[in-house]
Amino acid sequence: MSGPTFTVSVGIGEIVTTRDSGCVLTALALGSCIALCARDPELGVAGMAHVLLPASPQCHSPAETKPAKYADHAVPELIDRLLHQCASSKRLRFWAIGGAFKLTGMAELGALGDRVLRIGELNADAVERCLVERGYALTGRDVGGSVARTARLYVGSGRVTVTTRVAGVAQERELS
Amino acid sequence: MHWETRELSQLAKVMRVAYVRATSGLESMLGHPIQIDTTNINLQIADITQIPSLFGNIEATVIVIYMWFDGDISGHTLLAFDRDTALQLGDALVRFSLENVRPTPPLVQSALCEVGNLLTSYFLTSLAQQTGLSARPSIPEYIDDMAGAILEIPLVEVAQVTDWVLLSSTKLVGEHGESIGQFVIIPDPTSWDTVRTKLALVESPR
Predict the structure, then answer these.
(1) Across-strand partners of A174?
(2) Triad A6, A29, B83: Cα angle to 5°
(3) A148: nearest Cα among A84, A79, A100
(4) Which of A98, A146, B22, B126 could form a disulfide with A34 if both were Cys (CB 3.0 to 4.6 A apart)?
(5) A 32-71 residues with CB below 8 A of B?
(6) CA-CA distance, B60 to A165, in Å (whole number)?
(7) Are B80 and B203 in contact (CB under 8 A)?
(8) In angstroms, rounded to a whole number, what is the distance separating the alpha carbons of residues B95 and B101?
(9) Alpha-carbon gap, residue A162 to B146, rounded angstroms
């Protein structure tokens, strides 16, 4: 069954959770960022975190305005918000999308290479590690590569889709 | 991040000189009417979350010539075009430079990279002449993808230091003054402190 839908764009560093079945949580144009999607299929409560960096510096305060800026804050915060909305920890399912490597031709740049080129990979690893630390595993993932992605989580149906653009042409596929 | 109006005004003057130099250098090398709109130097203090929308629609496909620079100051330059404009411009540049040569996609990409390379190199050279701060540009990288994802490259660098960034964005105009692209410079946050210190010394010599 599908009714009218509306899109909520989840910006960098943001976490959005909802039980509105018409809502489509969307993270646009992910490069090295990760969209972590989560949903309790029985209750229909779902959420998305738009993660920018893998690990917060020691001096960083978690009370900052961007709760999903770092994976090590984003993952527990997303889970806690969903549990607060009565999601069951046993039923929660997770999908990770993004973590691309954008500068394919500049691998010879030593310093930049160390800091930036591997950020996508580090983000993907950090998100998965933080989930494992809380006792969860990913149901599906579409990470790595060198292509930008848009992630969508249809709260009502639980569909998770990934859109890419090759030579300007959009291609959408479903993540199972 | 706090900048005095006086400091921003001084910085804008330095940037304008560098943009003018970059424009004239580009024209002399390519012989093609591409100019930076130096009438409006846009210096913007932005939250890092605003960076992905610098080129407008985050999800729109754009062609960007990305370069990184390092030295006394470091940062990123991005020359952005919408796809159709980029391919038309690249085609025209190849035809202008290489008579009787068919503009194949690699040649078009190479021509666009050269535009980014020239703009960035002339800009940094002028900046160095005015401030004494040197920076070496990387090779140009041609990227054809969603705008927001490309802009994550400098965003990731900046976000590791701060949530605020001072950046410069200018329009690129064609033969008839029409907007054909955008040139964005995002120095690493610590580099601005270096520039600011240097400009203060230039303004108030002992």
Answers:
(1) A161
(2) 115
(3) A100
(4) A98
(5) 32-33, 52-53, 64, 66, 69
(6) 9
(7) no
(8) 7
(9) 13
The shortest CB-CB distance from A148 to any of B139, B145, B160 is to B145
Tell me which residue has tokens 């998965």. Answer: A128
HSE, side-chain direction, 13 A CA sphere, residue A139: 17
Chain A nearest-CA distance from B6, in A, is 30
Q: Which two tokens stand for residue A25?
A: 């949580």
How confident is the model over B107-137, as pLDDT tens digits?
Answer: 999 999 999 999 999 999 999 999 999 999 9
pLDDT digits (tens, 9 = 90+) for A88-141: 999 999 999 999 987 766 555 555 656 667 899 999 999 999 999 999 999 999
Q: Please report the ipTM that was assigned to this predicted complex.
A: 0.89
Residue A98 near residue A124 (C-beta atoms within 8 A): yes
**d(Cα B121, Cα B71) in Å, to the nearest integer?**
13
Secondary structure of chain A in HEC code, one letter for each residue? CCCCCEEEECCCCCEEEECCCCEEEEEEEECCCEEEEEEECCCCEEEEEEECECCCCCCCCCCCCCCCCEHHHHHHHHHHHHHHCCCCCCCCEEEEEECCCCCCCCCCCHHHHHHHHCHHHHHHHHHHHHHHHCCCCCCEEEECCCCCEEEEEECCCCCEEEEEEECCEEEEEEEC
Nearest CB among B70, B148, B157 relative to A29 is that of: B148
A145 contacts in B (CB within 8 Å)? none
User: 3-state class of B36 per DSSP?
Assistant: strand
CA angle B49, A101, A79 (to 5 degrees): 55
**Contact list, A116 vs chain B (CB under 8 Å):** 153, 156-157
> Annotated catalytic, A130?
no
Predicted TM-score of the model (pTM): 0.91
Beta-strand pair A140-143/A93-98: parallel
B156 CB neighbours in chain A (<8 A) are 32, 52-53, 115-116, 119
